[in-house]
Amino acid sequence: MKILLVGGGNMGKTYADSFIAHHSVKKDDLYILEHYEEKANYFKSVGFHHVFFEAGNYISEMDLIIFAVKPQDSQEAFQAVAPFVASSQVVMSIMAGVKIQAIRNALPTDKIVRVMPNLPAQVRMGMSGFTSSNEVSKEELFSIHNLLNTTGKSLYFDDESKLDAVTAISGSGPAYVYYFMDAMMNKAAEMGFTKEQAELLVEQTFLGAVHLQNIRSLSCQEWIQKVASKGGTTEAAIRRFADVELDKHISEGLEAAHQRAIELGN
Ligand SMILES: NC(=O)c1ccc[n+]([C@@H]2O[C@H](COP(=O)([O-])OP(=O)(O)OC[C@H]3O[C@@H](n4cnc5c(N)ncnc54)[C@H](OP(=O)(O)O)[C@@H]3O)[C@@H](O)[C@H]2O)c1
């Protein structure tokens, strides 16, 4: 399978590294179109032979073309690539808010897959939601699903509007986790711990809690009950969270992200 990555930035590099590490694609079959010289040179320095600054005839040999440029650069990238795209080629986009219809309008193929990944893809612990146009075959989707899973896990949705909700939950999600961790670290520092101690206390707590939840089939509420004994310290904290309706505020924050994703898509 020959793949072209348009954009070799953070996400482009993440995909290239993950595909190669999982032996999903050979280095010789992964082509990179990156107009920023320093980034293009990086790919050459790590053994990629097909690194291009400009679109060209090589694009017509690709089975899959992945767009990983910023959404504001999408039109320029589509215009550059379009003359070399055929209707049999599959296009995958990870560009936030760029809809399938916009890609259909810009490129001469109807085989389109739209993906919303997240930051932990960089360490192969990512979560991606994806959807596709009806013209993408089951076999093509299967190959793309396997490629996405090299960066973590992925879920397919028939309904494109679900990607706005995916953006609000897992796309932006890592920032919510960091926000909560930051609040805990600040409080730990206030209690007299050094920065390093506060970071270790909080980071290991998150890591351990998520790992435990992953390997045992208990719900979050059941785990809370396991930690919180009657009249104890955990119960005091959880009760205070409930008093200030923290869960409602979290829900409102996620809804704001959801609405913003819908707005940006329009
Ligand atoms: N990072 C995430 O966690 C995340 C999560 C979900 C979705 N996404 C999506 O992923 C996409 C890429 O994000 P990123 O963080 O990887 O961006 P990035 O680091 O800016 O990478 C994009 C690269 O593409 C290059 N480029 C722009 N236009 C080009 C063109 N026409 N031809 C060739 N190369 C071109 C840019 O070069 P210049 O800098 O010179 O313009 C840049 O090196 C975005 O659309 C974003 O919405 C990212």
Q: Can you tell me the CATH superfamily of the largest domain?
A: NAD(P)-binding Rossmann-like Domain
**Count of domain modules:** 2
* Cα-atom radius of gyration: 22 Å
Which oligomeric state applies? single chain
Give the CATH architecture of the largest domain: 3-Layer(aba) Sandwich
Explain how this protein is built.
The chain has helices spanning about 10-20, 35-45, 75-80, 100-105, 140-150, 160-170, 175-190, 195-215, 220-225, 235-245, 245-265, and strands at about 5, 30-35, 50, 65, 90-95, 110-115, 125-130, 150-155. It folds into two domains: about 5-160, NAD(P)-binding Rossmann-like Domain (Rossmann fold), CATH 3.40.50.720; about 175-265, ProC C-terminal domain-like (ProC C-terminal domain-like fold). The protein has about 270 residues and is α/β, with parallel strands linked by helices. The protein has an eight-stranded mixed beta sheet with strand order 3-2-1-4-5-6-7-8, sandwiched between helices. Helix 4 (about 100-105) links the parallel strand 5 and strand 6. The site of NADP nicotinamide-adenine-dinucleotide phosphate (NAP) has 28 residues, from helix 1 and helix 3.
What is the compact description of this entry?
This protein is an alpha/beta fold and 266 residues long.
Topology:
Elements: E1 3-6, H1 10-21, E2 30-33, H2 37-45, E3 51-52, E4 64-67, H3 74-81, E5 90-93, H4 100-106, E6 112-116, E7 126-132, H5 138-148, E8 152-156, H6 162-171, H7 173-190, H8 195-215, H9 220-227, H10 233-243, H11 246-265
Parallel strand pairs: 1-2, 1-4, 2-3, 4-5, 5-6, 7-8
Antiparallel strand pairs: 6-7
The structure holds NADP nicotinamide-adenine-dinucleotide phosphate (NAP).
